[in-house]
Design brief:
Shape: globular
Structural class: alpha/beta
Distance between the termini: 39 Å
CATH architecture of the largest domain: Beta Barrel
Radius of gyration: 23 Å
Strand content: 15-25%
Oligomer: single chain
Number of strands: 19
CATH topology of the largest domain: Lyase, Ornithine Decarboxylase, Chain A, domain 1
Length: 441
């Protein structure tokens, strides 16, 4: 796994928001495994982003719902002024349920079916198209909106890319530079008068320079489009991609440096071009909720063969980032946070897949069956990426409110949920045997 050997020499500064005794009481009420989020932490992360762009004439964070698709989480951010970034009809419904409607929603199209465009238009959302052919598709299958945006793929000026998104030339997203100009001209000819511009270059990036460079690309492009077509953009969306420090010795993105760098370019490029009133937007997901979430599990088994294994009551269906991206997530053992990490384990789940591992050759304290394992920084792209391979059931989601109260914001799946879409004439599924966490219904 990425940086496993690098990480093993560090004592963790990572913390969990509840004391040991309180967490054990929570586990009595809500059996493991579960993802748990901290409201205070989420709001603090959003405050830092807002402060970095407080200088801007207008700034909007469109929270990327895909990171943590739960209306309780969306509502927390919405209370502080965030909008939403949606890319599916389910995410549009989540946004609506949380009270985020109108142009606070941006639907970023990605091979989008007509029904999703129609729902977005019903909600008054901003439509952000991913391809020039989508103009005709949208007009034929729904209608053209009052405001439209296009996603730019900067492969014409960028050869290298982020590890997760990859090289722009290999990415399925966005329009070429020539297509961008043509797309806006088509929309102007069709009578659309309000426009935005969007890109998304990086994911989980912690270098401030990446986001400043993104701003330069977008500001220069907006200025050229205005010069050639006379478009006064209402917003420029710089995308998301703000990374978080998964490793204990990593530093977070320097948001002040990002904000200051973008500000310099704003006054250097946009203001002289007559775009000094443009709204800046981002669509951060991971940076808002990632560090504010944890996967809490119980050790079920220990196995010693050619290696030492610790088997949890969670698995890759609860957190697939380590298997999918070779990603590092820090692990602590409840009550043993300050114990020496002098044993080496593979921390695994129960799927019939050998990559169902949360950690490989990880230096940890001595672990016993029954220990509580806390996997850090799972608040984004954790529960959201769950699946049902092997018939595994997705865990519950809990929320620590600012007053310290813990509530369940999504129950764990049951076998009745798993079989709900299956109709087979000779199958007799006894709902009384459906498993909810550790309890038989």
């Amino acid at each position: 796994m990425t940086n496993e050997n690098h990480a093993k020499t560090f004592h963790t500064p990572k913390t969990f928001p509840l004391p040991e005794a309180e967490l054990r009481e929570v586990i009595k009420k809500f059996p493991t495994p579960f993802h748990i989020y901290d409201e205070k932490n989420i709001r603090e992360n959003f405050r830092k982003l807002r402060e970095a762009f407080a200088w801007a004439p207008d700034f909007r964070e469109h929270f990327a719902i895909k990171a943590t698709p739960n209306p309780y989480i969306v509502e927390i951010l919405a209370r502080d002024g965030a909008g939403t970034d949606c890319s599916s009809i389910a995410e549009l419904f989540i946004s609506e349920a949380a009270g985020v409607v109108g142009e606070k929603i941006i639907l970023t199209s990605n091979d989008t079916p007509a029904v999703e465009f129609r729902k977005a238009l019903e909600l008054g959302a901003i439509i952000n198209l991913d391809d020039i052919t989508h103009i005709d598709y949208l007009e034929r299958n729904a209608r053209l909106p009052e405001i439209i945006s296009f996603r730019y793929n900067p492969a014409d000026i960028m050869n290298d890319g982020n590890d997760i998104i990859g090289r722009p030339a290999d990415a399925k997203y966005g329009l070429t530079r020539n297509q961008i100009f043509e797309a806006y001209k088509i929309c102007l000819d069709k009578g659309i008068k309000r426009f935005g511009l969007h890109t998304m270059i990086a994911s989980n990036e912690r270098k401030a320079s990446t986001f400043i460079y993104t701003a330069r690309i977008m500001f220069e492009l907006a200025a050229k489009i205005k010069n050639q077509l006379g478009i006064n953009f209402e917003f420029i969306n710089l995308g998301g991609g703000l990374g978080i420090p998964y490793l204990p010795d990593e530093l977070p993105v320097d948001l002040k440096m990002v904000g200051d760098g973008v500000k310099k370019l704003f006054y250097e490029i946009l203001v002289p071009s007559g775009l000094g009133n443009v709204r800046l937007a981002m669509e951060s997901g991971r940076a808002m909720t990632g560090p504010a979430g944890w996967l809490v599990s119980t050790v079920l088994h220990k196995k010693n063969t050619y290696k030492s294994y610790v088997g949890l009551d969670s698995c890759m269906s609860d957190l697939m980032r380590p298997a999918l991206y070779d990603a590092y997530h820090h692990i602590t053992i409840l009550g043993k946070e300050n114990a020496p990490c002098n044993e080496i384990y593979d921390v695994t789940g129960s799927l019939c897949e050998n990559n169902d591992k949360f950690a490989i050759d990880r230096h940890l304290p001595h672990i016993d069956v029954g220990d509580i394992v806390i996997i850090h920084d799972t608040g984004a792209h954790g529960h959201a990426m769950g699946f049902n391979y092997n018939g595994k059931l997705r865990s519950a989601e809990l929320l620590i409110r600012e007053n310290g109260k813990v509530e369940m914001i999504r129950r764990a799946e049951t076998l009745s949920d798993y079989f709900a879409t299956l109709e087979f004439p000779n199958a007799r599924l006894d709902i009384r045997m459906c498993v909810h966490s550790k309890k038989l219904l």
